[in-house]
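To: structure desk
From: M.T.
Subject: fold request, one chain
Message: Could you run this one when you get a chance? Sequence is below, nothing fancy, just the single chain.
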Amino acid sequence: MESTKQPGLLAHARLITGVGVAWLFDAMDVGMLSFVIAAVHEEWALSPVQMGWIGSIGSIGMAIGAVLFGMLADRIGRKTVLIVTLLIFSIGSALSALATGYAMFMVLRLLIGMGLGGELPVASTLVSESVGVAHRGRSVVLLESFWAAGWLAAAVISYFVIPTWGWRVAMVLTGLTAIYALYFREGVKESPLFLARQHQRKPRFWPTLMALWHGQYLRATLMLWIVWFMVVFSYYGMFLWLPSVMVLKGFSLINSFGYVLVMTLAQLPGYFVSAWLIEKWGRKPVLATFLTGTAVAALGFGLATSLPLLLTAGMLLSFFNLGAWGALYAYSPEQYPSVIRSSGSGLAAGVGRVGGIVGPLLVGSLIAAKVSFGMIFGIFTAAVLIAVVAVLALGRETMGQPLD
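Reply: Done. Structure tokens follow.
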């Protein structure tokens, strides 16, 4: 049942912008972390394995947050949970600027991860339930495009701020996003589908989990869990290590930041092309196409030996990978009914975050073992291709179908 109270054009734009700016702040933190890892590596003399754990501890927090806050959003509302998670990650980011060593920094990254992991699937659910069927997929992909804007902001801040004033100042800037929660409270409305069902019996964890793995939802859940795991595993394994990989390939830290900034610019057109195609081709073909492009670009980046080839492959990797992310966030909430929609999306994202734990750790271990970058990125190519097979074999097309 599609809500009869869909927002008008102005309200639609306010919804996408309001939730999108919160998404931008999340991306800013995750994007900046890849540069911060390269900076604290020198300050604290970290090993490759320790560097990998910085990314992985955040993914542990994101897995916890995705499941916990995804379930909570089905009980108390999407908007309330978004405000709470925004505050958690913002305050954690500000406090991390005070970290005196590796251990304290890791505890705060766990807290930040919980906020980030909870916000992302709940945000896509809120937008999916608040927009008419004709524009639903495109709206969620456009929401995801704010992630690219956040990465660009992170790359710009990292390029101009970290080399001069240090990574702590950059983390303070991220922490200031807590102020945005005050606007969010007044500027964004609750999901109409949630409001229509708020007096119904609230879902509980185990019955919801059993429902996801039985009957009509089993195939969708299996597909989503495979795709989310493989996509997050490859994304965090590759993108959190991009600046460090450039340094290890022989470029200076400041030049590496600049090159990654150039690669990041390709994320925005990736989102926009995905948003344009998703209501024309459908969810399945767009997701499969962009994932296939990601796999090819990942292998090219790992095998590249010259700067032009590295930049070209890196830009293609950004274009296809972030376009695939947009399609995945649009596709995931459409698999389930309203009463368990946020829970189902959150659990899938939580499983994906397990891949985010494994990816950075694997890269750190393989680099320490002197494994070639071609082999490392070949592993990520294989993982993304497994996700393509899962989408094509198990996924169903949801374009044009009303949410119930």
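Reply (cont.): Confidence is low (pLDDT under 50) at residues 1-5. Let me know if you need anything else for the meeting.
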